[in-house]
Amino acid sequence: MEYVPSLLQTVARYISDRSLLRPGNRVAVAVSGGADSVALLRILLELRAELGVVLSVAHLHHGIRGPEADADKQFVGEMAKAHGLELHAEYRDALSDARTGKISVESAGRRLRHEFFSSLLAASKVDVIATAHTLDDQAETMLMKILRGAGTRGIAGIFPEYKLETGRIVRPLLEVRREQLREYLREIGQTWQEDSSNADVRYTRNRLRARVMPLLREQVNPAVDSVLANAAEIARAEEEYWDDQVKRRLPLLLVPGEPARGGGRKQTAAAAVSLDIAKLKQHSLALQRRLLRGAGEQLGCPLDFEHTQRILDLLNSRNELGAKKRSVEIESSWRARLLFRELRLERSTCQAECRDYQYALNLPGEVRLAELGTVIRARISDDNGLSPSTSYNRAQSITLKSLSGPLSVRNWRAGDRFQARHHNSAKRVKELLYPLHIDVLERQLWPVVAAGERIVWVRGLESPELRIESGQRFCIEESRE
User: Fold this and answer.
1) Dist. CA 280–CA 297, nearest whole Å
2) CB atoms < 10 A from the CB of 206, how many?
3) Smallest Cα–Cα separation from 41: which of 185, 255, 225, 228?
4) DSSP-derived secondary structure letter, 394
5) How confident is the model at residue 379 (pLDDT cuts 50, 70, 90)?
6) Is the pLDDT of residue 392 over 50?
7) Distance between CA atoms of residues 251 and 241, nearest Å
């Protein structure tokens, strides 16, 4: 068995060079029952003493292939038992998930596997998940990404390591061909399960594997798999470099809040970010694109090449004499808007996130507003709730009998009225917000604090001194998360 040691050395070197596994790691090997995953398990069993890791087996039944999938589960369970390994097995219904989410069965399967792996890591049952992605998988993935118009991040393909908050997913076989693994299994006399769905050309990857890749090997380059995998490796290294550049440079471009008339800045909704145009334009085109994508990612707004180009075109039109276009739609609910010196990425329409919200607020206590990315606090005040420069004698004292009802934080509603400090009477909140020049989205989400039905605090407006029946004063504060 001359072939076996060389394969083990290749995998061991790949793991070591990239620090994929470390002594003491509890590693769950994702085993479907197919040749690749079975080979990964057998290889790691051979290397576990050298690596110093603790192995277990993870198996997900997708609920797709009926008795065949049941046989896979039994096969994996027997294999785990034969090697004295703990088995983590779950059942998920990929077909139902695909129907519910209106996505392909392939996409549903990937999502459910990711959820399964994440649950194992989150439960602290394991530290690392090892999957059996091969060089062939890398080549196929890269080609699919290119054909679908992915940028450099997409053509980086499958990364050797994927970090989650609760652990890591690693791919130790990305330098190994699929056929090498089958040859290895035959040499050691290890059987595996054949997945009949791999021959179903209704699935995109199967069509690519069965029809396109053989044609490329025959008509273009016999080594096309290695060429594509090498290109993915180069793109991955480039991506890591650019990610570091964006992380260091993007904070220098971001501008908090939004300009207010008369000078200064005003508070804004969480679903927006502003970039200094002059600083952005100082960078190369390649870095401008990546900085824009990085800003979008902070908002949960992924920008592809076309989205990014629309924004750059908007910036370039700013220099044209008489240019009137001030904004561009970049997604169904996102837009880029030009201000005087800034580019603002923000939600363009009020979607589900803009629905009314209301949360109970204890005294003392705090409430996190996911809608705004802020925290509202209510506390008993030892300093009258006033700044040192504020005269107590000028403050309007309002006593709230038993707080006139429980405190709550909510967005303002039509008909709400508020008596601000130094005002002789209450006015409609809608009128009080006009001078703040708040855009439509922010205005709908603008927070207030109510005691029962009475508004006692409005963001951005001076509140009167607030007392509860006992005479104690309390104040309301807001801070960013």
Assistant:
1) 17
2) 16
3) 185
4) G
5) confident
6) no
7) 17
Residue by residue, DSSP assigns 253-313 as HEE-SEE-TTSSEE---SSEEEEEHHHHHTS-HHHHHHHHHHHHHHHT----HHHHHHHHH
β-pair type (334-338, 342-347): antiparallel
Q: Which residues contact 165 (CB under 8 A, 6 or more apart)?
A: none
Report yes or no on 250 lying in a domain.
Answer: no
Half-sphere exposure of 474 (CA within 13 A, CB side): 23
| CATH number of the domain encompassing residue 215 | 3.40.50.620
pLDDT given for residue 132 in this prediction: 95
User: 266 with 436: CB under 8 angstroms?
Assistant: yes
Best-predicted range by mean pLDDT among 144-153, 162-171, 401-410? 162-171
* Residue tagged 């005002």 (tokens): 423
* pLDDT tens-digit series, residues 98-118: 777 777 777 778 888 888 898
- The band of 386, judged by pLDDT with boundaries at 50, 70 and 90, is very low
Per-residue model confidence (pLDDT) at position 385: 40
Residues in the chain: 481
Q: What own/partner pairs with CB < 8 Å and gap ≥ 24 does 9-17 have? A: 10/175, 10/176, 11/43, 11/47, 11/172, 11/173, 11/175, 11/176, 12/47, 12/50, 12/51, 14/160, 14/172, 14/173, 14/174, 14/175, 15/47, 15/51, 15/170, 15/172
Q: Residue 301's domain spans which residues?
A: 256-347
User: Of the residues 347, 367, 398, which one is the last residue of a structural domain?
Assistant: 347
The answer to whether residue 240 sits within a structural domain is: no
Q: Are residues 45 and 155 in the same domain?
A: yes
